[in-house]
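Note on ligand handling. Small-molecule inputs were canonicalized before submission; formal charges were left as drawn, and no protonation-state enumeration was performed. Where a ligand contained multiple stereocentres, the stereochemistry in the source SMILES was retained. For pyridoxal-5'-phosphate, this procedure yielded the string shown in the input block below.
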Amino acid sequence: MKVPFLDLKAQYETIRDEVAVAIQQVLDKTAFAGGPFVAQFEKDFAGFCGTKCAIGVGSGTDALWLCLLGLGIGNGDEVITVPNTFIATAEAISYCGATPVFVDVKEDSFNMDPELVRAAITKRTKAIIPVHLFGQMADMDPIMEIARKHGLFVIEDSCQAHGAEYKGKAAGSVGDAGCFSFYPGKNLGAYGEAGAVVTNNEELDRNIRMLRDHGQAKKYYHGMIGWNARMDGFQGAILSVKLKRLPAWNEGRRRNAHLYSGLLAGVPGVIVPRESEHAKHVFHIYSIRVKNRDGLIAKLGEKDIHCGIHYPIPIHLQDAYKSLGKGNGSYPVTEKVTSEIVSLPMFPELSPDQIGRVVEEIKRSL
Ligand SMILES: Cc1ncc(COP(=O)(O)O)c(C=O)c1O
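Structure output:
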């Protein structure tokens, strides 16, 4: 029995007819770039997140970048984030001219350690970007408290956390803004590239709407220098179809995660992910920790069980960020967990038999 890391086809089969109708509607209206289907999705997604505004853009990277630009962050500014994330978090900071300043994560959640944020604040700091890694929100209360005290913006990198909650509040709705990716493999995935910013800040909403469309609020009247980062119409229509299913899909992921954790409990040498008491984890990634990570992945691969590593090299050790001068040992918790993590197959349609097989092979391989 093959166990893929992800099976987008299995999910597509359950919504094939609805997606076909949605695509046909976009074709009939020739609403390809932005337009009514994107506007409808923005309304739906703002409702889902509990924010006043949602702005559809071209990707999660665009969402982070335009959000920083829309808040006026640029040359000479510093933005605090974590090195244990996908590189886009840092790229967005660099691409608006600011510098990423990293703080380490907590070992039990893989998320930003709020205790370390205060010491990283300088006169140049303008914002904090906690990353809700793997589908679990960072500990937002202390982060918000520090940010308010120092007059800093908080942008939630919610690219892996669609529908996750912190003390009952949805990802993206706690800080000044939340940025989402709808890359196909995400909990809410488009059938192409797409992203969104959610916010209650109407000025930021206006800025990002202009920035994503060449700085124009009225066609050919460019009030600022913008970019082309519009969401495409097909993605808006497909995302509206998929958003209705997201709560059930997230429940499926949670059920699968609990099954894994139950079966792996007490297996020597395996640390299962922990759901913090303040969080509703939506398990975009289900990541265990083991000592011989590469050996385990190779052995599971031989048995047709496909795993991943999110992420094998922390940002501060990537060649792209050598110039920050942060070598080995700079962020010890990040470095430790990134050398031990293994992402097991995880998607809502994963069957109990498949999960049982993965666990059996892990036990045999360790
Ligand atoms: C934490 C995080 N931030 C940002 C991004 C960037 O999103 P996108 O790939 O849609 O540009 C991703 C996507 O993988 C992500 O996981």
